[in-house]
Structures are given as C-alpha cells and as structure tokens.
Design goal:
Layout: H1 2-20, E1 23-28, E2 39-42, H2 54-70, E3 74-75, E4 83-106, E5 115-138, E6 144-151, H3 160-175
Helix pairs in contact: 2-3
Length: about 180
Amino acid sequence: MRAATLSAALLSLVFLGACSSYNVTYDYDVTASYGRYKTFDYYTSKKGTGGTTNLMDKRVRAAVEKELQAKGFVMETKADPDFLVTYYPIVHDRKVRTTTHMGWGWGWGYRPMYGRMGVSSSEVRHYKEGTIVIEIVDFKSNQMIWQGAAAGALTGLNNPEDADEVVPKAVRDILAKFPPK
C-alpha cells in the first residue's frame, strides 16, 4: 500500500512538472552572417495554433523586444531592418493517466498459500501544453535564419502573476543562443 501511495505521488509530481517546466530548442542557418545584423522589426506569421490572448501576446512581444535590445539590436520601423522577428504559440491537447493500485496479500514461498486482493483506480487528466516559437528571417533574402522554441512554457499559467514570471524567462532562454557564435 505504501508503494502504491508513493507511485501515485511520483506520478503527480511528473504531471505537475509537465505543467510548470519547459524545454528549449533552437536551430539556425550556419551560413548566415549574423555579425551584420543590427536592426529588427516584426512580421506577422500565419503559423501557430492559437490558444493565447492579446494579453499574452503583449507579454511575449515585450519580452522579445527587451531581450533583443539587451543584445544591442535596435528596433527599426521607418526604414528596412536587417532582420524580421515573429513569435507565435502552438497549443496541443495532452493527457496524463495515473493509476493507483491498493491491495492486500498473504502467503509464503513461491506458490503455496499465496493470495491477493486489490483495487486499482485510473484517472486521466487533460491539459493544454503551450509552446512559444520565435523565428528570425533575413530581411533581404526573406529566408529563415534562426528558430527557437520553449515547449511547455505556456502550460499551467493559471494567473497573470505566473505568466509575468514565466514568459520573460522563457523568451530569455529561447534567445540565449541568438545570435549564434
């Protein structure tokens, strides 16, 4: 019984961990000349699966601007920028199944006088896993040169305080590898 309780607790931690952490990945064009990029602007992407609000959009945009400006890039809205940035959410429906076994048994040896009774209970929890994707496109060639994502960054954000804490950190982690060295 203690093992069943322990396994249920561990599965609950796995589920909670899935809701509160994220995994950052990135990819880039190794032939691009990143040293020549100084200015940026935004473009609107048709990608993404929705699932966020205008308030979340403002959070992500503010975090992207702050991180790029901290790296020395300047936002250029009046002339042609060196690169364009877009960001969008991808939201997937996910399920986690937890099963708890509780049982009683008696016996000794391999088989003689061995018996067992028990009850199992399964529960399926549904949640939405949200990912932030950031893409950077060379303005002149119109080719994507860099892409990063934080899978799970928009998962489990139940209030504005959580979002205000997680989104800037996730964007900072995504853009940590831009520009590539």
